[in-house]
Design brief:
Strand content: 25-35%
Number of strands: 15
Radius of gyration: 23 Å
Distance between the termini: 64 Å
Order of helices and strands: EEHEEEHHHHEEHEHHEEEEEEHHEH
Low-confidence stretches: 167-171, 173-202, 364-380
Mean pLDDT: 79
Bound molecules: FE2/S2 (inorganic) cluster
Helix content: 25-40%
C-alpha cells in the first residue's frame, strides 16, 4: 500500500492505496463519489472525465498514487460552479441527455470548451467533445447546449481563457505534486513532472460566484491616470502588497505568484495565478485569482474589482474596491468572516500606503517597508479588543 494525500472537491483526503488502484475506482469505492462513471475503462469513452489540477483527465487510466498532492474535482465538486450550472440548465433545455451515463464526463469536457473557445464554433465544439461518447442523443442537443452557453457568456463580455490556462502540451495530473517527480501512467509510460512552478502556469482561472463579498476604499494623493498606469504594472503591485511575490514572468493579462498569510497558529503560502482585466475608458479593472496552500490543504478563489474616482479636482484618486472570495479547507475553519475582512482591510491599508509612497518616488525595496507576511495575530488582538469594547459599551448602555 502507498500513502496518498490529495485535495478532492476542496476537501483534504489522506489514504493508503494499492499502487495499481485507478483514480476512478479510488473516488467511487473509497470516497463514494459515484458521479464519476466508468464505461470502457480503457480511456476511450470519456465517461470517467474529471479535473486534475483544473484540467480534464481520464480517471480510468490515471493511477490514484500519481495524483499525490493534486487537486481533483469531480462532477460533485462543481455544484456551485457558474459555468457548470449554466451548462446543466442548457443540457436540460436542449434535451442533451437521455440515460445520463455520459453526462458527468460530457459536462466536464464541455466546461473546458466554454472556458477557452472564443466563439461558439460548432466544428471546434464537436472536435473538443470527440473524446466523450454518447450512445443515446446523437450529439445534436449536446452541441447546441454548449454553443448557447459559449454564445451567451461572450455576449455578456466574459472573455475566453487562452488555452484554458494551459501553457504547454502534455498529460495532466499531479500538477501540484511535491517537487519534481516521475510518475507512472496507467498506459505504462513514465511522465516527468517538472515541478510546481512550471505547472502552475497550466491552471485555468475560471469565473466564479464568491461566497463572501465586501467593499473597501482608499485614497491616493495622485491623479487617476497615474494610479491606473501603476495598477497595470503587476510587478509594482506585488511589491506594494505585503507578503506577495511573483513566481513567473507576468504579462498584462496574467500573473502567477504567491502570498504568505499567517492566521493565528496557521501559516499558509498560497500559490496560484490571476487573470487581469482592465478598462481604460472607465478607469476600472478586475483581477480574478485562484490559489492553494499544500500545508494547510486550503484553497481559495478571489476577485477584486476596482474603480478609480477622481477627487480633489483630479489631483487625487478614490480607489473603490469590491472584494469577493471563497475559501475551502482547514483555513476556512478558523477564518471567520470578521477576521478575513479585517485581514483584507489591513492588507488594503498597507497596499494603499505603499502605493502612495511609490507614486511619490520611493523605491519599494529601499525606503518602503514591505512586510514579509500578512500576520493575522495583531488582527486577532484588534478584533478581540473591538469586540470586548462593544460588549462593555452594551453592558453600560453607551
Ligand atoms: S471509462 Fe474512462 S474513458 Fe471510458
Ligand atoms: S445520454 Fe445516454 S450515453 Fe449519453
Amino acid at each position: 500500500m502507498t500513502a496518498l494525500g490529495l485535495v478532492v472537491n476542496a476537501r483534504s483526503v489522506e489514504a493508503s492505496v494499492e499502487p495499481r488502484t485507478h483514480l476512478a475506482d479510488f473516488l467511487r469505492d473509497n470516497l463514494d463519489l459515484t458521479g464519476t462513471h466508468l464505461g470502457c475503462e480503457h480511456g476511450v469513452c470519456g465517461a470517467c472525465t474529471l479535473l486534475i489540477d483544473g484540467m480534464p483527465a481520464r480517471s480510468c487510466i490515471t493511477y490514484a498514487v500519481a495524483c499525490d498532492g493534486a487537486r481533483v474535482t469531480t462532477i460533485e465538486g462543481l455544484d456551485d460552479d457558474e459555468i457548470t450550472a449554466e451548462l446543466r440548465a442548457a443540457f436540460t433545455r436542449e434535451h442533451a441527455l437521455q440515460c445520463g451515463y455520459c453526462t458527468p464526463g460530457m459536462l466536464i469536457s464541455a466546461r473546458d470548451l466554454v472556458l477557452r473557445l472564443p466563439t461558439p464554433d460548432e466544428r471546434s465544439i464537436r472536435a473538443g467533445l470527440s473524446g466523450n461518447l454518447c450512445r443515446c442523443t446523437g450529439y445534436v442537443g449536446i452541441v447546441r447546449a454548449v454553443r448557447i452557453v459559449i454564445d451567451q457568456r461572450r455576449k455578456r463580455g466574459i472573455a475566453p481563457v487562452v488555452g484554458g490556462g494551459r501553457q504547454m502540451l502534455g498529460p495532466v495530473g499531479s500538477g501540484n505534486a511535491r517537487n519534481t517527480a516521475t510518475v507512472g501512467s496507467a498506459a505504462g509510460t513514465a511522465t516527468k513532472v517538472e515541478g510546481r512552478d512550471e505547472l502552475a502556469g497550466m491552471m485555468a482561472i475560471p469565473d466564479f460566484t464568491p461566497a463572501k463579498v465586501f467593499s473597501d476604499r482608499f485614497t491616493v494623493h495622485y491623479p487617476p491616470d497615474r494610479v491606473f498606469d501603476m495598477l497595470g504594472d503587476v510587478s509594482q503591485i506585488a511589491a506594494c502588497l505585503p507578503g506577495a511575490s511573483l513566481t513567473g514572468v507576468p504579462t498584462r493579462e496574467r500573473v502567477e505568484g504567491a502570498i504568505r498569510v499567517r492566521l493565528g497558529p496557521i501559516s499558509a503560502d498560497f500559490r496560484g495565478a490571476a487573470r487581469i482585466e482592465r478598462d481604460i475608458e472607465k478607469l476600472s479593472g478586475r483581477i480574478v485569482g485562484i490559489g492553494s496552500d499544500q500545508r494547510s490543504r486550503s484553497s481559495t478563489q478571489g476577485e477584486i474589482r476596482y474603480q478609480l474616482v477622481p477627487t480633489d479636482q483630479g489631483a487625487a484618486t478614490h480607489v473603490e474596491l469590491s472584494i469577493g472570495y471563497s475559501l475551502r479547507g482547514m483555513l476556512a475553519q478558523i477564518a471567520r468572516d470578521g477576521l478575513v475582512r479585517d485581514l483584507a482591510a489591513r492588507l488594503t491599508a498597507d497596499f494603499a500606503r505603499n502605493l502612495d509612497r511609490h507614486l511619490g518616488g520611493d523605491q519599494l525595496s529601499g525606503s518602503i517597508e514591505v512586510s514579509k507576511s500578512l500576520d493575522g495575530i495583531p488582527l486577532l488582538f484588534d478584533l478581540l479588543r473591538t469586540r470586548v469594547l462593544r460588549v462593555i459599551r452594551r453592558v453600560i448602555g453607551k
